[in-house]
Amino acid sequence: MANLQVEICGVKFKNPVIAASGTFGFGREYNLLYDISVLGGVSTKGTTLEARSGNPTPRIAEGSSVILNSVGLQNPGVEHFIKYDLPFLKSKGIVVIANVAGKTLGDYGNICSRLDGLVDMIELNISCPNVHAGGMALGVRPQNIFEVTKLAKSNLAKTPLIVKLSPNVESIAANAKAAEDGGADCISLINTLTGMVIDIERRRPVLANNTGGVSGAGIKPIAVKMVYDAAHAVKIPVIGMGGITSGEDAIEFMMAGARAVQVGTANFSDGNAMPKIIAGVNAWLDSHNINDVNEIVDTLTLN
Amino acid sequence: MKDLLATVKSNKKIAENIYMMTLVLPESVGQMHGGQFVNLSTGNGAHLLRRPLGVCMCEGDEVSVCYQVKGKGTKYLTEVEAGRKLQVLLPLGNWFDLDGCKNVAVIGGGVGIFPLVATIREHFQTKNFYSYIGFRNIDAVCLYNELAKSKKLTITTDDGSYGEKGNAVGAYLRDAANINPDIIISCGPPVMLRVLKQKLKEAGITTPCFVSLEERMGCGMGACLVCVCKTASGENARVCRDGPVFDINEVQL
Predict the structure, then answer these.
(1) Which residues of A are catalytic, by number?
(2) Is A264 at the interface with chain B, CB within 8 A?
(3) Domain A6-56+73-197+214-296 fold
(4) Of B42, B106, B131, B225, which sits 20 to 30 A from A119 (CA to CA)?
């Protein structure tokens, strides 16, 4: 049994496998399948100041080795989260990462201020269209990323800040640097790519929202490359994600520079995906006589 | 709720484009009820989503589900042979609760009949089922012997090629006053459920009515908020976890 414990921004994770935002709710449902205290952490469903009802259905579609979703940040609002979901997650003894989003720059500041000191980490979701950025996602241009990060950070005295980066950008390295310059303590990536699936019989997109976020095993090579690029552009720690379905996949991201990983879509394919991935990481380390998972981080040699 | 590696016992065509797959579970998950469903892997690694399929029969460690061939996933499922192992999450969702009811009207259409068959099988020895089942045509008719466990069975087809020409909702409304059931349970295409709701209202029928809904799903257990429907008050309800069975007056159809 290798050491699986990792530490990011002073926060200790019992292992480097974290539930990705949006696929895991606030953990209650998966806890009926297995005790989620085995996880490294949970990044919550994207939470906003007020409750949101999300997009029309269908909200999910499938491509080859990928899925698309357009849930649209349905969530019960931050006060509901604090009152009902946070105590449950805390009782599990795992790292609680609040994934937060807003409509305006000010929303990001306010929700960070509300959650400061209450959760272990805050993960900024800057991929949703924002009026201040002319309807463009705040996470596209380096200048916008810098500003929203700086504002969020100025509202946080205690809780470390993760900025979650969108892959639908010109330069992931420049955006990672912008987050670091804005004061981010950590970055996570990748959020979903954008895509469309068409029902050719109806000549319409399958998703009611027409387009959605692409995730799942099929995007993994794109994600690994972006994690590598981002990790080598900044000094702050990186959490990697995108199509991880096995322990070997998690190892791959860590070799590319990630200190921990998040798992999303794999939970849909297999309810027990995350405990299996944790076991898989350990098995790989054991079979290679590596006694600490931290030893594999950023150990890639380019050809 | 368990995620189990089940063995396919059989997988056969039972009507035009409709298949029944029987799975043998490695351990018991207790009695499953009509309305509940399973989230079944197709066994093809390129299909990251499982397929939510209503339970049609459940006996001991065997569960049978039926599916219509609609896309690549269900097409692939038709080729799965006996002996193959598939991952399945179950039991999921709520069910048609018939506690305290003696006379039950059943209104089903097309692939919506499977949860109704499970309900009839579970209770036919103690309750009277008056079933009105609509199919497109004679090629779509299936599970007659199961449906025939009803005290009275009326089958309709759109083109009159089997049973009465017409639809299940119309046939029920004609007989509703004579049956005067304690409850109506229904499952079928969205348009059928909409018509049912409207016609019950127009006819002033106040019999409690419960419908099972279908929606594209992600996790199947209520975490991902993909498969929502709108309640009468405009809130979101999760079809997989708050349903799939809802009071017809409490959901927007």
Answers:
(1) 128
(2) no
(3) TIM Barrel (3.20.20)
(4) B225
Q: Is A28 helix (H, G, I), strand (E, B) or coil?
A: coil
Mean of pLDDT values over A94-118? 96
Spatial distance between the Cα atoms of B243 and B237, rounded to a whole number of angstroms = 8
Backbone φ, ψ for residue B140 (5° rounding): -90, -10
Quote the pLDDT of residue A102: 92
Asked if B218 has any chain A CB less than 8 Å from its own CB, the reply is yes
| Mean pLDDT, range A233-249, rounded to an integer | 98
Question: Which of A36, A59, A75 to mutate to probe the B interface, most B CBs <10 Å?
Answer: A59
Q: Give me the percent of chain A exceeding a pLDDT of 90.
A: 94
- Could you read off the pLDDT of B114-147 as tens digits, one per residue? 999 999 999 999 999 999 999 999 999 999 999 9
Measure the CA–CA gap between A16 and A254, rounded to whole angstroms: 9
pLDDT digits (tens, 9 = 90+) for B162-201: 999 999 999 999 999 999 999 999 999 999 999 999 999 9
**How much is the average pLDDT of A129-150?**
82
CA distance A205 to A197: 6
| CA distance to A124, A236, A248, B233, per residue, from A180 (Å) | 13, 7, 29, 45
**Is there a contact between B49 and A30 if contact means CB atoms under 8 Å apart?**
no
Q: Which residue, among B3, B41, B224, would best test binding to A if mutated, counting the most A CBs under 10 Å from its CB?
A: B224
Instruction: Pick one of 3.40.50.720, 3.40.50.80, 3.40.250.10, 3.30.428.10 as the CATH number of B103-212.
Output: 3.40.50.80
Which of A32, A54, A57 is nearest residue B215 as measured by Cβ atoms?
A57
Domain locations along chain A: 6-56+73-197+214-296
Query: Is residue B82 helix, strand or coil?
Result: coil
Name the residue among B48, B215, B222 with its Cβ closest to that of A62: B48
Class of domain B2-92: mainly beta
Minimal Cα distance from B218: which residue of A? A268
ipTM: 0.93
Per-position b or e across B184-215, b if 16+ CB within 10 A of its CB? bbbbbeeebbebbbeebeeeebeeebbbbbbb
Parse chain B into domains and list their residue ranges.
2-92, 103-212
Across the interface, whether the CB atoms of B218 and A23 are under 8 A apart is answered yes
Cα of B215 to nearest chain A Cα, Å: 7
Work out the angle at residue B238's Cα, subtended by the Cα atoms of residues A199 and B167, and round it to the nearest 5 degrees: 65
Q: What tokens were used for B196?
A: 């049912």
Name the pLDDT band for A137 (thresholds 50, 70, 90): confident
